[in-house]
Amino acid sequence: MTHCILIGAPVDEGQRRPGCLMGPAAYRVAGLSSVLESLGHTIEDRGDVVPGAPGDETHFNETVHHLSEIIAWTEALSDAASEAMTAGMPIFMGGDHSLALGTVSGVAEYANRQRRPLFVIWLDAHSDFHTPETTTSGNLHGTPMAYAAGRDGFAPFPDFPSPVPGENICMFGIRSVDPSEHSALQETNITVNDMRVLDEQGIVAPLKAFLDKVRDADGLLHVSLDVDFLDPAIAPAVGTTVPGGATFREAHLVCEMLHESGLVTSLDLVELNPFLDDRGRTAKLMVDLVGSMMGQKVFDRRTRSF
Q1: Is 216 among the catalytic positions?
Q2: Catalytic-labelled residue, pool 13, 96, 124, 181
């Protein structure tokens, strides 16, 4: 069984629609600890990370907002992630996806110390492959995967500890990519399993192929699960809805396969905005998906009525 370390990351500044800062509380209310304990795991809730005071960093791209705040979050979450990896499996309860600027950085730093390669599965509608220089929205929640992959253009952010090689990154469920991100991705070895790929090949073959690579390399596996990976019909509590996402069955299959692989070493839960939810529907679904990722089987799931 696993020692699960719950870490709240109430980051709200990476986008412009308030509410993600309530995400950690929503996961706690939705029973994340209880589900994990029922599966035999031990729980340590370290509360919510508190960033240091923001600096005075600026950027020539005037659309970028809350730069200094996100840098402070990145530094604080990187430290929290690196330390938590020494004690168990951190589960970061967000918060918008800019939190991954820090969580993946901290996990990468730990992987360097262990001299093991880091792999990342990005379960998301978006590739998040902008840099502060290329973003047109100014929303830094659209940049963490580019940061982890070592794209240029991230000054004044701290240097990423060791960029994750493209072949160690798998994007899954992608269905919204800006032209500049598309061009940049084509110059990498990142595996992009968009919804077209999943419609044609199904879930199992692409995911199994990537998990086999992780296993063969004795790698650490970080999973970043964005609410908008799911179809908005079943997960409405997100400010970046994109139709055509993963169904209930597809999402649970992904999570069950991740569990069966035995490879997951850290997890982000991001972009939950409880203000947009329907009686906690999305929070409860995300908790059930974590349950599947940690060993819950189909007959163990709680019956829901909405």
Answers
A1: no
A2: 124
